[in-house]
Every structure is written in C-alpha cells, then in structure tokens.
Amino acid sequence: MTSTPFRTVLVANRGEIACRVIRTLQRLGIRSVAVYSDADRDAPHVALADVAVRLGPPAARESYLNVDAILEAARRTGAEAVHPGYGFLSENPTLAEACARAGIVFVGPDVRALEVMGDKITAKHAVAEYDVPTIPGIAEPELSDDDLIAAAERIGFPVLVKPSAGGGGKGMQAVHTPAELPEALRAARRVAAAAFGDDTLFLERLVASPRHIEVQVLADRHGGIVHLGERECSLQRRHQKVVEEAPSPLLDSATRERIGEAACRVAASVDYVGAGTVEFLVSADSPDEFFFMEMNTRLQVEHPVTELVTGLDLVEQQLRIAAGEPLAFGQAEVRLNGHAVEARVYAEDPERGFLPAAGHVLALREPRGEGVRVDSGLAAGIPIVTDYDPMLSKVIAWGEDRDEAFARLRGALAGTSILGAVSNVAWLVDLVSDDDVLAGRMDTTLIDRRFSERQPAPVTEPELIAAALMAHRDRWEAPPEVGPLWAAPTGWRLGRARPVRYDVEGVTVTVAGGTEDARVSVGLDAAAPRRAALRVSGPAAAGEPGVALLELDGETVRFDVARDGTTVWLGREGRVRPLRLRDRATVLADRLAAVDRGTLAAHPELRSPMPGTVVAVPVDAGARVEVGDTVVVVEAMKMEHRLVAPVAGTVTVHAAPGDLVRLDQLVARVDADDVPDADDVPAASTPTPDVPPHEADAAPTRPAAAREKSPRETGPA
To answer: What is the reported pTM?
Structure first.
C-alpha cells in the first residue's frame, strides 16, 4: 500500500497512544493534529504532532471529553478524520455522530455498532443470535438492586457484578456471598455513573479459574472480515490488565480457529467496520470452551503484541478502512510469527497498595535492543499528570518463542529507569519472572491472590552509602568559597581529622576521605569503616540519568542517578528509590513534629492517600460510624479508594463530593466514643492540689488512643 488515505488527521487523545498514532501518521506522510488540556501543555504528544490545539482545563470533561471542542479543533485545522485512540471518547456514539454531521471521518465503527456493543446487555443478546456462546447470568435493562439480588440467588454464588456501559473492568465487583452483594451493587453503580454516565448493571456467573482471551478483528466496508489471532490477557489486577501476550499458551490450534471464527461472527452481528477486539472468558479447567464477554469497538492498549506477531500496523489498517479501502488480504494470508508479550508501566506504588503516584520525571531511560519496543508518553522534565489514567508507557518484547519473548521483556523492564516518580516497574520484573507465569499456569485471579500485597523493600546499605557519597561528592567538588576550613567536607581539624556525617532517611552514614577513596560506616554503632568508591558519569544523552558505580568491599553496584534538591533518586534493575538527605534543621523539625504522636494504635484523622477528587461521602457529619465503615471515597487516575473509619465514633467531615484534594489532605475525622462519661468515672480519693476541679472536668473527652497515628486504612471501593 502506497496511497495516503487522508491529508490531515486529528488525534483525540493523549499520552502514549497519541504518540503511537502520530508516529504512524508521520510514516504515512499524513499531517497530524494533537489536542491537549492545560495539564498536558508540555506533553510529548504535543511536541510530536505537526499542529497542536488547546481544548481546555485539566478536567477531562472540559477537555478530552468535550466533543464540541474536539470538533472545533478539527474544523480549525482542516482535519479530514478524527482518530480517538482508546479511552475517553473512543467508544462514544456522540463523537461519531458529531463527526458525521460535520463531514469528518470518525476512525472507528458506525454508530449502531458503538451503541449495541457499548451496552453489554444488548451485546449479549445480539451475539447469541449468531451462535456465539455467552456466560450464564441475567442481562436486562433497568434492573433494580432488588432484582439483581433475587437473580443472584437463582444464578448461584459466586457472581460478577458488571456495569452495562464502559469497559476496562471499571466498576466490576466479584461477590462470593449474599451478604457482600448490596454494598457491591452500590459501589458498582456509583463507579458506573461517574465513569460512564450510566449506572445500569447486570450479573454473570463467576467462572472458575478464568482465563481472559481476546481476538483482534479487522472488518472493511466491503464485507471483508478477518481475525488476527488471539491475545492472552489473564494477568490482571482487580480486572485491569497488566501483562498481555500473543498467542495464548492455553489454546490449541483447533480452539484457536473456533474462537477466531466466533469473533468474526460477533463483528458480523453489528456490521462492524474497523479494528475491534472480541473478549472471551475461558476456564483453565476446560480450555476448549469459551464464552463471549464483550466487544471493544476501538484499538486496544495491548494491540502491539498482535502487530509484532503479524507484522501489521493496526493504526494504518484503521485509517485505510476508514477511508473506504478494502482489506488487502484475506484470512488465509494471516500468519502468526513468534511470540510477543507486553507489560504496562503505571504511575502507582505497589508498596503502598498500588496507590497512584504523582511526581516529576527528572531523568528517563527507556529500554532498547533487539526485539524490544516501547510505546511511551514520557519525557524528562514533564510532570506525572494525575488527572487521567495512570499508564505511562508500555514495554513490549518479541521472540522466536515464548521463553525468548519473556526473557527479553525481563531485561527490558530491568533496564527501565523513571527517576523522579514511583512506578510499578520493579513489581513487573517480579511478575514476569514468576514460575507459574513462565509456565503459562495463570488465570485472572493470580495477581490478586499472590501479587496484590507487596511489603516495602528495606533500604540497602549500598543505597544508603551511594546517596551519602553523592552528597559528599557535590560538597567535595564545590567546597564553600568562604568560611572556616572545618565547613568543608574534608573533615579538617586542628587535631585529628573528623569524618563527615550524613543523615539519609534517618540513617547516619559516616564518610571519611574523598568519594573515590572513602571510608564509610552505616549507623552510629557500626563496626570498622568499609572501603568505598563512587564514580559518576553521564548522563550519556540529554534527559537520561547519570550512572553511578559504587565499589564496596570489592563488589561493584551500578545505579542510575538523578538529584532533586535534597533527594537522591537511585534506579537499579527497574526499582527506583528516592532517598532524602536531611540536614540538622530538618532532623530537628522532624523530631519536633513527632513529639505529640505518642505510641497508640488508631489515629482519628482520615487523610487522602493521594491527590485526587472526592467522589462520595456516604456519611453525614455528626453521624456515628463503626470500624471499617466507608467515610470518604477519593478517585484518582480512574481508581477509587475508600477511606474507612479507624475507630467507632462520631465523624466530622472536611470534604464534599467534587472537591479536589492534595496528598495527605485532611478529609474527615472520627472521634472515638468509647470514653466513659464523667458520671461513670470514680472520684479520686485524694484531690490533685495543683489542678482546680473545673480544669480537671475540662480534660479531654477522648482517650489518648485517638491522638496517635497508625497506618490509615484505605482501599479500593
């Protein structure tokens, strides 16, 4: 194919998918138009495009979800087509209709396909007529909570609560007992209403040992439909895909052919046009049986693994189909070559319950090499925007077989450094190194069963020493121009030289000598000093981290490094560690702040564990709550987190739905109510002479337990 389907295309999205679409437009010689919110003014997709148009403020509804603003941008720039990427408006019939009215091509299916497949209830009924197997359950419009509770008893537990609109697992709730169902329904409706504007729910039987298998299809306007093989998407955390591969290690060739034919029938049921994905559920215990779940009427996040095993550019195929061209090949010409696997890099902290992580990219190293591809929306110097999805990039690897593909992926992830922000890269390295994953023994519950809780990895001595020597190096190379000699880091004194002490995250590291021939010890009671040398080079290219080689007791440890004021960021084998260097004033301030913390177990304050938006406050101010009751729900990066009562007591609310909150901002307080009344307190046998009675009566009415901190209990709704 050498023709150019369009002259100008607007990409109605952001981040890595916008960059990925723009690169195909560039390769085809098509002028690209990016759109952006104020939060993304300096984002890579804006710089990559030929033209960029501001949509509005950071809030998605005022920018990337603003159909009128997107159409106006298309008109102003002369765009002939709009590519929606995935997420945002990619499956929204409103944008497709608006494009049609404006005479602009929507790079996606027709409105009917969007409407039918956008409603999972309607979709299940539609595909059943085409002899596509579906999961037992109840899928009818306008089901009340009472209807669903009654139906669950007939279906049998466990069941899966699913929003009819939307996708990506958002709002889905697995329910194992009848007692859990009412709260699960409330949570699912709240999420669905906020995310999709539609709180319609339905139920399905929860399949045992489920494998998530999806099939990529292409369909043109001339009746041509082909499938491009399947993808295994069973590695999910709370219904969100994390690692995907093609082909699936579960299916044999006969099942692969049957499931591909079924996917094509699903596309035919709605006269589908464009690239789409049909998702099936397969029991690991019965791999020859599959059930239709839904059809995603857009490009999928995991489409690169299909591209690597087929050699096709799916964005190019989308554009050519949208321009009216027929498919240039048939089913018999589709060949799968080798194996590909993809890992999603998220701005989240697995050591803090996968809470979204903000930050600023100080330095960035993304992997390269044979069989490695990175689709990224990152660049050094940009902030991690918390207003949208937390995905930062995708690391994809291809190999002649599955073992080689996974080996290359592990190496690529270990070579990834995003300094200045916390991500899930080190967690991904562990996941794709797991014996069950490598053997293909997995289902959609594996991560939640075995990888959902990650204890914080302790700071190692090499990390502490490297951070201290980084600070020592800066002081040694640039001693004060004026002042006493003992202000320099040489340790010079009139008598014996005195080592220099550094406080790294509360740990004392003592350094004597220069950085290339240092004697170091960790802790005040450390044994004899150890020999260490730190050599720093780079960065090799603008925006990349420097490289620090720490020689310690005859061993050399390599770190990627960057400095942010008093914080040293170290990266090694995918793990990124921020280490704060505290001066005397900071140490004193921290000690003073801890004076009134005490030693008790439950803190009455509920503070937001992340920057985000308050989406629900299900309690009234002054109400009594029990331990574990939901007090406030905060959302960030498409994830909801419940802040629950740490003690039984009376709640005071400091936030309202719609409020934007900062990390650690106070949102509510629960004062314990287990304090005995004054009348129940025995009178003291001997009055306290220096405390007047009226002052004694005015003593605090809550126990000291309510004054001390403990880890605030938070969790997803």
So the answer is: 0.79
